[in-house]
Design a protein that fits this description.
Sugar_transporter_CS; 17 helices; 2 domains; disordered C terminus; 78% helix; 0% strand; 466 residues; mainly alpha; Growth Hormone, Chain: A; globular
């Protein structure tokens, strides 16, 4: 096997781990809350603290990897991720766990763009890069949905601490093999950081995600105020980037319809993957009263369908283009969500849930491939780190927002704490996934048709000619 494909396997393992860590904790939250002491509502920061730091710092992570060397930054990030995972497992209080999860998120924000930019610089533009990005996108999609499958048996069998301990040997393996298998590279330019831009965009993202996560427990006025603060910070960021000699995010990137469309698609699938998975976890464990292991087995069909969908999707993108693959995939997830919205307390697993999860997973797998390829297809090597940071941020922030939005919808439409009352809210939340589909379809509409896409032989598709 060529060395570059072994390198891809190593990088995909890293990508799978950091995305998995965002979702696997959801299954373990009840056990964590029983063992550790939290203030009222404080346990929500175990999953959301990771998401906030991960999503908020991804853009800076991409810039750091471009300037300091992608392989070097990857290795340092792995070391920090391993150390913070140990701190999570040995956490002696709720506050200690939340702080350790935040450190994990910071490490993930550096790891994700470093790994993806190495993928882009390892494979030449064209069908081979499409295949590599398709495999990368598939591992990210599966990582976002496989948390319950892996987390259930680990939590019930070994204890919640082991959902963090299992990261350590993975990190050590990649650290050992990275100097042998991975190429180092960096983007040319000034060796400096746009600190003002980094602070403003990170603050804007953190405030935005914080506002959505806190919305179910906050007043409308407070949520609106936080949203306005976030918008003001984003506006300030744009102004800073226009005036910066070495901007954190070159605004020229947003002239690409493919980049904008691909990231909208990725946001949509992040919203749906994490949001639907979270609501189904609540339905299964609170309304049906099943164990974490049983839930993991029931939800495994989603991960399996996502794997199959990603393999089919990467071949179809190469043949017919990303636009139709993305559109059909989004509609498939909508069909799956519709089936889930028909669930009742008496519904048999193979009556609705099995089919809903299958359709949703197939669309998720194929669609994340199309979104990833679209977002990065027209990016030069110089901007690989920041573009990959944007693409990863889209999925992660979409996931944090999706959980918050669907949780709020479910709470607002529940009719009491009985299983039937809770299920009434969950049904509406599943149906609300169509709003996420709409976001993705807007992104798909921005993509070029196959006939107008640059080919591998055209100057636009060649490195250095974009």
């Amino acid at each position: 096997m060529p060395k570059r494909w072994l390198a891809l396997a190593l990088l995909c393992l890293t990508g799978f781990m950091i995305i998995l860590d965002a979702s696997i904790v959801l299954v373990a939250v009840p056990s964590i809350e029983q063992d550790l002491t939290f203030s009222s509502g404080g346990v929500q920061w175990v999953p959301s603290g990771y998401a906030l730091m991960f999503g908020g710092l991804l853009l800076l992570g991409g810039r750091v990897s471009d300037l300091l060397g992608r392989r070097r930054v990857l290795i340092v990030g792995l070391a920090v991720f391993a150390g913070s995972s140990l701190l999570c497992g040995f956490a002696w209080s709720g506050d200690a766990l939340v702080l350790a999860r935040g450190l994990q998120g910071i490490a993930a924000a550096v790891l994700a763009p470093s790994a993806l930019s190495i993928v882009m610089t390892t494979f030449p533009d064209g069908p081979e890069r499409n295949k590599a990005l398709g495999i990368w996108g598939a591992t990210s999609g599966v990582g976002g949905t496989a948390g319950s499958l892996i987390g259930g048996p680990v939590t019930d069998g070994l204890g919640w601490q082991w959902i963090f301990f299992i990261n350590v040997p993975v990190c050590l393996l990649v650290i050992a093999l990275a100097p042998v298998l991975l190429q180092d590279s960096r983007g040319p330019g000034k060796r400096g950081f746009d600190l003002t831009g980094a602070v403003t965009v990170t603050a804007a993202l953190i405030v935005l995600v914080y506002a959505v996560i806190e919305a179910p427990e906050s007043s409308a006025g407070r949520t609106t105020l936080l949203a306005l603060v976030s918008a003001a910070l984003f506006a300030l960021f744009v102004l800073v980037e226009k005036r910066s000699a070495a901007p954190l995010v070159p605004l020229r990137l947003f002239r690409s319809r493919a980049l904008i469309g691909g990231n909208l698609i990725t946001i949509a699938f992040g919203l749906g993957a994490f949001g639907l998975n979270y609501v189904y976890t609540q339905y299964a464990q609170l309304a049906l009263g099943i164990s974490a292991i049983q839930y993991g087995l029931m939800s495994s069909v989603l991960a399996a369908a996502a794997v199959c969908g990603s393999m089919v999707g990467q071949n179809l993108v190469t043949r017919v283009g990303a636009r139709p693959v993305a559109a059909v995939s989004l509609l498939l997830t909508g069909v799956g969500a519709t089936a889930m919205s028909r669930l009742t307390v008496e519904s048999g697993y193979f009556e609705l849930a099995f089919w809903g999860l299958t359709f949703f997973g197939a669309g998720l797998g194929a669609g994340t491939v199309a979104g990833s390829i679209s977002a990065l297809a027209q990016v030069t090597g110089d901007d690989a780190g920041v573009a990959s940071g944007l693409q990863n941020a889209s999925f992660q922030i979409g996931g944090a927002v999706g959980i918050a939005v669907l949780s709020a919808v479910a709470t607002a439409h529940s009719s009491g704490s009985s299983p039937a009352g809770l299920t009434a809210g969950y049904r509406v939340a599943f149906a609300a996934c169509w709003a996420f589909v709409a976001v993705g379809l807007v992104g798909a509409g921005l993509l070029r048709t196959r006939a107008t896409e640059p080919t591998a032989a055209s100057p636009a598709a060649q490195p250095g000619h974009r």
